[in-house]
Amino acid sequence: MAHRALWSGAISFGLIYVPVEIHEAARDGSLPLHLLDSRDFAPVGYEHVNKKTGKPVAWSDIVKGYEYEKGKYVALSDADFKHANVKASETIDISSFSDAADVAPMYLETPYYLAPAKGGQKVYALLREALQATQKVAIATFVMRERQHLCLLAPQGRALMLMTLRFSDELLPPESAGLSAAALKGAKLSAGELSMAQKLVAEMTSRFDPEAFKDTYRADLMRRIQEKIRRKQTHNLAADEPAMTDRPKAQVIDLTEALRNSLKSGGKRSGKRIGHRQAGPRKRVQRAQVP
Predict the structure, then answer these.
(1) Which of 22, 235, 252, 275 could lock 7 by a disulfide, CB 3.0 to 4.6 Å apart?
(2) Is the pTM of this model over 0.85?
(3) 118-154 pLDDT tens trace
């Protein structure tokens, strides 16, 4: 059963309009945890409270507002958001087409499916096939949930996908993490170290298989939850922290030796490495068309 559309409007490029709907393409894999009061383990609710009176406010009485001066607000309705730019709120406006490789991973945000609305199937297929044939992605902007998004449109099988992108001014510079030239000074690599690192990368190279990766931490946490239920320890709060049995060292003393040992073990730490390529002739890895 198809989920309810999050947005409906049209893709616009040139003089062509494609009526479409946006649907979710991913789901949250985290456990649905609740906030509890540790004194009696009762659920802690979330209430909308008037900060002036201290009384709860019904959802129907809540509106959005922009604080233009301290304590002074401009109230905004749904109509205000739409009338700010009617075209932007109803159209996915394609501005250009680019190679998928030109979009750096740090810009990628959330994936969505684009489904053709009534009467839009043929033009939807035309855009999808044109992108597939040219191996391009469309770069566009649109407004959803009272915010403008930069996005790319890309074919995925018989579907078109929309991936929201971060604007460049939303990304922090490397300097914010201390990655300045001064911080990296002294990282002198020998030709031998670089050669062995490249060999290690080649040895561990395989085609990306998303099915090979599972959320093992979620499964482990569920097992711990089930064990606490089985032992009737539902209200027991563990205080001790388990020690890490294989804590990585802060500094590798002999990088050359570490690289050499990694090559000897085939890039494995312990056990069977997920997604490791099978033995046999090496195949050329093709670049994915959809980021």
Answers:
(1) 22
(2) no
(3) 889 999 999 999 999 999 999 999 988 888 999 999 9
